[in-house]
From TrEMBL:
Signal peptide: none annotated. It comes from the Eukaryota. Residues 7-151 form the Flavodoxin-like domain. Its main location: cytoplasm. It comes from Ostreococcus mediterraneus. One of its GO terms (cellular component) is cytosol. InterPro entries: CysJ-like_FAD-binding, FAD-bd_FR_type, Flavdoxin-like, Flavodoxin/NO_synth, Flavoprot_Pyr_Nucl_cyt_Rdtase, Flavoprotein-like_sf, FNR_nucleotide-bd, NADPH_Cyt_P450_Rdtase_alpha. GO terms for molecular function: flavin adenine dinucleotide binding; FMN binding; oxidoreductase activity, acting on NAD(P)H. Its cofactor is FMN; FAD. It is found in: Cytoplasm. This is NADPH-dependent FMN and FAD-containing oxidoreductase.
Length: 646
């Protein structure tokens, strides 16, 4: 029988935010004398769920309202029709979702999970919490009051004995640090390391920290950890390709407002690059020079020798002391920690306050980590996109331990790009293509920023090494008899280049096997947007060569390529304006069963495009406001309207 104070915390996380929230819940639960267990939903044996008393779920929403990868099997089990409506009547639960209200399917995974648990008889002890990235304070604006009420409700259900009391928020903030989840042992360097390439040593450092994290997660979840099982799971997750750059060229003119580049990668060793049109490529930018002065200074602040070697393993799994791989310190920090791009999270400030040598710095860090300091933390950190390097510049008295730094500093995570080649392209040449815009902006404090990965990719030369994964995207190419409307301004055109090249190849095969007269194919309408025909018309020659092809226009002539040039006339002209101007053609395509795909910036474009389609539906279909709204909803629910925004 489980402890009466047991709290199971399950999360579904794609980028790590939901996991961060889950781990915060665990820390606060421990401080309040509960016995929490935390793990990804898919790591939990769902057959034991009816025996749990209290479960807190944290989940994000990805893609087209999809659940994160590490909760998919858990969710599929919950959806079984054979489950009775009384399956979870003894379970009390709470759900917090992380989402972005700029998306149409805002927090839909958390909403569906909340309703499904309710439908299986579980008892909600807290209203559904919905964190919104669009809020100035991010998801914590909703999380803080939601957590405050959660602890109140859980305390009423599970009173403390007389000799214990709940700590105040201030007491929790000022509590001594527990032991770090990692141990960092200094070890002797292995022999024959000087000749090994920088790239290999950086990727091995990433893998070493991932191994330690996976082992620590298993320990936190109360499950055993096997190195053999871990390696098997890594292989099952998909291939990691060691590749080389075979092409890296600019698609824009030198005077374009934003540079966009076309890159092609080939595996170093011959292998099948299996993917579908619409899939994505993940790449970790190994951009930091291991000998740069800022990195060496930071490592010194951690009390370590940059040239030294260490083993990192969980403090709860001391038996890994000798099996954990050894890595050189400077490669570990440069290859596994995002020190020059990502902003630290609130818990980072809380932990660092314990290592400040100055009382003023300690007070400032404690204030930033408090509920009262949330607004100022946002201004200092998130809005300014403060990096770890800059943080240490601002707090010169800090000398944290290496173990705690590895635990709370932001990990160097993959950046994902839509694949812009077709599977046939890759089968023919062995190369996979991506289309990358240079990311650059000015912060509120007038700091000039560049995207870590896009700047690194732009600097690569033919023959340079990269490591990448290929993963399922949120959109897929339908059969060739389905009409398509593809709306992709800027680099949003990347997945649709893949779609178009693959569909043209499919039709070419059909032509050769069935003959031109017997072949039938549906039209594809591409709506592209850029500033200027001469500066940033991406893949201009390709679109001009296929725009009038019967394979694209279809027998109806409804397909083709139309372009919105936003800066070539007095009034700005965007893809949404183009959609309205092509309303008759678009309405005919919609009425013939076309599927709509929209890709590109997540800021204002998706909503403006959606409104433009609704305008087409209303005007061309002679429908009322309510009727056009219902028409658009049906497009979404029937799988005919997709948005892939970033």
């Amino acid at each position: 029988m489980s402890s009466p104070r047991r709290v199971l915390v399950l999360y579904g996380s794609e980028t790590g935010n939901a996991q961060d929230v889950a781990e915060r819940i665990v820390r606060e639960a421990k401080a309040r004398h509960f016995s929490p267990i935390v793990m990804p939903m898919d790591a939990y044996d769902i057959r034991f769920l009816p025996g749990e008393q209290r479960v807190v779920f944290v989940t994000s929403t990805t893609g087209q309202g999809d659940e994160p990868r590490n909760m998919k099997s858990f969710w599929r089990f919950l959806l079984r029709k054979s489950l009775a409506a009384t399956s979870l009547t003894t379970v009390s639960y709470a759900v917090f979702g992380l989402g972005d209200s700029g998306y149409q399917k805002y927090n839909v995974t958390a909403k569906k999970l909340f309703r499904r648990l309710e439908g299986l008889g579980a008892n909600a002890i807290q209203m559904l919490g919905l964190g919104d990235d669009q809020h100035p304070l991010g998801y914590e604006a909703a999380l803080n009051p939601w957590l405050g009420n959660l602890w109140k409700v859980m305390r009423e259900a599970c009173p403390l004995p007389i000799d214990l009391k709940d700590p105040t928020d201030q007491e929790i903030a000022n509590a001594p640090l527990p032991h770090s989840r990692f141990i960092v042992d200094i070890v002797e360097p292995p022999s024959s390391t000087s000749e090994r390439p920088r790239f290999e040593r950086l990727t091995e450092a990433q893998q070493a920290l991932r191994l330690a994290v996976a082992a620590a997660d298993a320990s936190d979840a109360g499950t055993s950890f096997s190195l053999e099982d871990y390696n098997l799971k890594q292989r099952c997750r998909g291939c990691v390709y060691d590749g080389i750059v075979v092409e890296n060229k600019s698609l824009t003119s030198q005077d374009a407002v934003k540079e966009v580049r076309h890159l092609e990668f080939k595996p170093q060793e011959a292998c099948d690059l299996a993917y579908e049109a619409g899939d994505i490529l993940g790449i970790i930018p190994l951009a930091v020079d291991v000998n740069c002065p800022r990195l060496l200074s930071l490592i010194g602040r951690l009390g370590m020798d940059p040239e030294g070697w260490v083993r990192v393993y969980p403090s709860s799994t001391p038996e890994m002391k000798h099996s954990a791989p050894s890595v050189q310190v400077k490669y570990l920090i440069a290859g596994a920690i995002d020190i020059d791009s990502a902003s630290p999270r609130r818990y980072f400030f809380e932990v660092m306050s314990h290592f400040a040598g100055s009382s003023l710095e300690q007070e400032r860090l404690q204030y930033f980590a408090s509920a009262e300091g949330a607004v100022d933390l946002y201004k200092y950190n998130q809005r300014e996109r403060r990096t770890v390097f800059e943080f240490f510049d601002d707090f010169p008295s800090l000398s944290p331990s290496m173990a705690w730094f590895l635990q709370v500093a932001p990990s160097l995570n993959p950046r994902y790009y839509s694949i812009s080649s077709s599977p046939f392209d890759t089968a023919s040449t062995g190369a996979v293509h991506i289309t990358v815009a240079a990311v650059a902006w000015t912060t509120p404090m007038k700091r000039q920023r560049k995207g870590l990965c896009s700047a690194w990719l732009a600097s690569l030369r033919v023959g340079d090494k990269v490591q990448y994964t290929i993963e399922n995207g949120s959109i897929t190419l339908p059969p060739q008899d389905v009409p398509l409307i593809l709306v992709g301004p800027g680099t949003g055109i990347a997945p649709f280049r893949s779609f178009t090249r693959e569909r043209l190849r499919q039709i070419q095969v059909t032509r050769s096997t069935e003959g031109h007269e017997k072949s039938t194919w549906a039209p594809t309408l591409i709506v592209f947007g850029c500033r200027d025909a001469h500066r940033d018309y991406l893949y201009k020659n390709e679109w001009e060569s296929v725009g009038g092809d019967l394979a694209l226009t279809g027998a109806s002539g409804l397909g083709g390529v139309v372009v919105a040039f936003s800066r070539m006339q007095d009034k700005k002209y965007y893809v949404q304006d183009c959609i309205k101007d092509e309303s008759k053609r678009i309405w005919a395509l919609l009425e013939s069963g076309a599927k709509v795909y929209v890709a590109g910036s997540a800021e204002k474009m998706p909503a403006a495009v959606y409104d433009a389609f609704r305008n087409v539906v209303q005007t061309q279909g002679s429908l009322s406001d309510d009727e056009s709204a219902r028409y658009m909803i049906r497009l979404g629910t029937s799988g005919r309207y997709f948005v892939d925004a970033w």
